[in-house]
Specification:
single chain; alpha+beta; four-stranded antiparallel β-sheet; 7 helices; SEC_C_motif; SEC-C motif domain protein
């Protein structure tokens, strides 16, 4: 078996990957490093089908365990109001890009490039579109637990019901799936006679470790419509 990479090794690898991606698709960004924290600063350019559309001054911090931990993203010129309705956390001005565990479950390979071209670009493109049109181009999620429920319901393909989502995730977290378990859909039937194929497919799509993270997120936090 190969040796597990140490924290400095992972930080070195991440630093090189961020440098490569920034140079390839966002040349106005600079990349530096402070210990195990990779820092990206400068102008992030937003594109549409016609080419460059807009740009934002940003600070992005990557933790060395990326993609396990979501990068911290800030718009640094105060152009975007610190308001939840603009998907900005009022407490510290951080950008609310996405429900991270939902993105990890949906994306095929959660690389730095996928992050740049996906959640990061979509966030700032959406801000530009909203400024021009007063609406969000990709729709809008609720704040807090409701937004997490919405994201996870899409990942799992189930209704937007917190209890149903928790029931599915609990089965997905098991090491072994027995057909005698109660189906998480709420029918009261045994899993083998109901949605076993669906649960098995989800277990193949979402790794157990990620399912455990998703479960902790919806099973331990209280309902809130406005608190991020």
């Amino acid at each position: 078996m190969g040796e597990v990479a140490t924290l400095p090794d992972r930080a070195d690898e991440l630093f090189r990957e961020v440098q490569r991606v920034a140079a390839a698709c966002q040349s106005e960004l600079s990349v530096s490093r402070e210990d195990d924290f990779v820092i990206v600063e400068g102008k992030f350019v937003v594109w549409d089908d016609q080419g460059p559309l807009d740009s934002y001054s940003v600070f992005i911090g990557f933790f060395s365990d990326f993609p396990a931990t979501s990068p911290r993203v800030y718009e640094t010129e105060g152009r975007i109001p610190r308001d939840l309705d603009r998907h900005m956390y009022p407490s510290d001005g951080a950008c609310c890009l996405t429900v991270w565990e939902g993105w990890l479950a949906e994306v095929r390979e959660p690389t730095v490039e996928a992050f740049f071209r996906g959640p990061l670009h979509d966030f700032f493109f959406s801000q530009t579109y909203f400024e021009a049109n007063g609406e969000w181009p990709f729709g809008e999620r609720s704040h807090g637990v409701a937004g997490v429920v919405e994201a996870f319901s899409e990942v799992l393909g189930v209704e937007r019901d917190r209890q149903v989502i928790v029931a599915y995730l609990r089965l997905m977290c098991r090491r072994h799936l027995g057909g005698h378990a109660v189906c998480p859909c709420g029918s009261g039937r045994r899993l083998r006679d109901c949605h076993r194929d669906q649960v098995e497919a989800l277990r193949g799509k979402v790794p157990r470790e990620l399912a455990e993270r998703m479960l902790r997120q919806v099973d331990t936090i209280k309902r809130s419509k406005k608190t991020p």
